[in-house]
Amino acid sequence: AETRGAARAFPGVAGDDHRRCRAMPLAYEEWVSRYLDDLYAAAACWVGDEARAADLVVEAVRSGFRAFRAFRRGEGREGDVRLWLLGRLARVYLARAGLPPDAVWADAEIRPRPTRPGATPPPASPDGGEAARAVAAAWVRLDAGGRIVLGLVNVLGLRYAQAAACLGLPPERVRRIAAAARERLAASAWAEMRRTTGNGRGTSGAVR
Question: DSSP readout, the chain?
Answer without folding.
Answer: -HHHHHHHHSTT--HHHHHHHHTS-HHHHHHHHHHHHHHHHHHHHHH--HHHHHHHHHHHHHHHHHHHHHHHHTT--GGGHHHHHHHHHHHHHHHHTT--HHHHHHHHTPPPPPSSTT--PPPPPTT--HHHHHHHHHHHHS-HHHHHHHIIIIIS---HHHHHHHHT--HHHHHHHHHHHHHHHHHHHHHHHHHHHSS-B-TT--B-
